[in-house]
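Bench log, entry 3. Co-assembly request; chain sequences pasted below exactly as received.
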Amino acid sequence: MSNEDNIKQQLIEKFSALSDKIIVKRARRIFAEVSLADFPQVFDFAIKKLNFSILTAITGLDEGTVFGVIYHLSTENGIMLNLHTTTPRDNPLINTVTNYFPAADAYERELVDLLGIPVEGLPQGNRYPLPDSWPANQYPLRKDWKGQMPVNKEESK
Amino acid sequence: MVNTLFHIFIFPGFLFACVSGLAAEYIDRKLYAKMQNRIGPPWFQPVADCIKLFAKEVIIPQQADSRIFTFVPVLAFAAVLTSFFYIPLWNVKTLSSFNGDLIVVLYLLTIPTLTFFLGGWYARSVFSMIGAARSIIQLFAYEIPLFISILAVAMLADTLSLSEITVFYSKHLWLILINLPGFVVAIIALIGKLEKAPFDTPEAETEIVAGSFTEYSGRPLAFFKLAIDMELVAGSSLLAAIFLPFGLNIHPVPGFMLYLIKVLFVVALISVSRTIFARLRIDQMINFCWKYVAPIAFLQLVLDLFVKGLIR
Amino acid sequence: MSNYDFIVPIGPQHPALKEPETFLLMMSGEKIKGMNVRLGYNHRGIEKACEGQTYIQDLYLIERVCGICSHSHASCFAQAVEEIAGLELPKRALYIRTLIGELERIHSHLLWLGVAGHEIGFDTLLMYTWRDREIVMDILALLTGNRVNYSINTIGGVRRDITTEQIPQILKAIDTLEERTKYYAKVATEDTTITARLSGIGLLSHDNVLKLGVVGPTARASGVKRDVRKDDPYAAYGEIDFNVITDDHCDVYGRTLVRVGELMESYKIIRQVLAKLPEGPITVKAPRKIPVGQAVSRYEAPRGEDLHYVKSNGTDKPDRVKVRAPTLANVQAVAEMLKDRYLADMPIVVAAIDPCFSCTDRMTSISTADKDDKTFMSWPKLRTYSIEWYSRQGVDFSDLNKKFKAPGI
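Structure output for the full assembly:
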């Protein structure tokens, strides 16, 4: 059995809910769908027991009724586990992973700024990447944001 | 009277100092460029820079002390200019000399560093204050070895007047060889005084923008730059007069050529050092000066004491 | 953060930074007591822009994320899209992509050597390495038509082929560069002032590298053997023999050695690529509408690991494009590296992670002359604004096609 299938097997053994939600796309690429409730345990298991010691990125997606968040984990020899979880659009909230990866700070702030997903437990710090003067409640990466914003004063050239 | 005015304004005063300063800057930049496989500026570049700066607007930051800000460049310029009067150029005679003028010249050449400090400090911007502090800290590192090595030479000649030192050494040419360690020390110290690499941390462009000169523009900056250029020539002439005092009693024209060659030699050494060294941090610079340069200066002092005892 | 006396603002505009970011250093004398980093100045909203363009248009957009890692980003994106579409690229295309990728790496590392020299006040190194960079840029211009931003990728392969006449020219250039690089290696290791300025600076221990997620030469200089070309091979790297250069110094000096070592490896790789270059087509036909799917693509840019995530929805425009550039992973380690160091070390430490802030950020906010008046412009409005502004200066864009007639068009 290849390394990837091995990992898939171990995940399914530990979390039966994932049994039909893990796909080994090709060598070194595993995609898994995890519910928000199960996510902390799966994440912890992947990091502590399956040697996924690198968090390369966190992607936020606008999927219509929900917001998707994908955590791209990787082992030292290049196997990637992409954990996709969702949070409802009308009340989004996810927990921080900076306790595992301090460097996740920047990636989570992108979610806060660009998609408007609050991250619980994120330490104090500067916002990224939008400027401080960016108006509130404008989340550029949402599908319904088209670049038209209410202006402060009358539109001038 | 006319003679004195000629000496003050033309030679070796104002005109000669300015022209030789600008020429020295050109030679420095051209050598630097050639060693880096580049072409370098044309001969009139320093003149053009000077003229351009005089024509620019002077912007004084609001929080700066504008009187000190505009006064200190002129002070630096005047100090370096005055030092020219006491340094023997190609002849043992100077415009004016008295016993102790060596100390005066050394002091006059320290004034520019103090003006860099005052100018940077009273500009009251973060970068210029850091640059000013670094200028003064650097002063503590190179000034003592410079003074000791020069005073060692003076002590051997038993006089503190520059022209009399040159007279003495013209009579005992072999003693120049005894002073060579002091020459090395003095060149290193001169690089520090002129704030050129590897000792250009007070003016580190990539760290503190321009150090003391960050807020300067227009005429005050032109005076500062001119003062630095003239300091290059004055320092080189001083070193040439003290450590290379040969060929001083020959006919004026070849004598002047010889003087130019000596100055060119020191300027070339400074350019080479600028090319081949990276910038040292302030703590590394002080370490270096006190660990290696100062002991050699002291060694020179002891050596000169010994030789003095021998020839008496 | 302990007590500090004053704050030195490095940025957003500063001679040490080639691109705007703010590092507010809390200083006490010459020592850095704390640091406040503000990123985002170069954010241009590229990820959002990608959603509104077709895949081919996105390729050009992604290329312009960065000037000097343009091929890395474009290849990474193309790889992701090709994976979703299930395209199998011809071998020749993969080899050409590798060739240009390695030439880009040489270009970037030579540039870095020069920048590092400049940051420590050693302009001679800057002049020499940038002179040699001209050789690489000439080769790239010969192969692709441009000195930076080579635009050689397309979805499904590469756009230009290399001819047999070009190969000896490339090899000759590589020979010259290899000789010169050996000289730089000697200089970097033997020159006392350089080692004095680079050693012991920007220390980042092995454990911190793992904890902070650092990538690229910055990580490899702390002994962490991570290179996407070996761990997750792409393009032609699976068939090429090369070493991953690591070093144990953990400081800026180590990073210099790693980059110089990587230059030598690049020459080796290029020679192998040219020797093994297979015949065949250089592209496969890519569908206009990419089927539904998602893919994660990784690429070893000169600065480290570049990651692209692409999600497609069956149309000719992607649903989501995510770019994670290497500098974003590295810049978070800068605060750690500068703890209790001197102000003078700051430029070289930031330069040592080889920052490319354009890659990192990706907002047009216009402040009008009245300081308190900030209006935001939408993109169509911005376009109209700029056209009207230029017409007031007397430049008429509608006339340009008539004025500048390209030959043969």
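Chain B has one domain: 2-311. Chains B and A do not touch (no CB pair under 8 Å).
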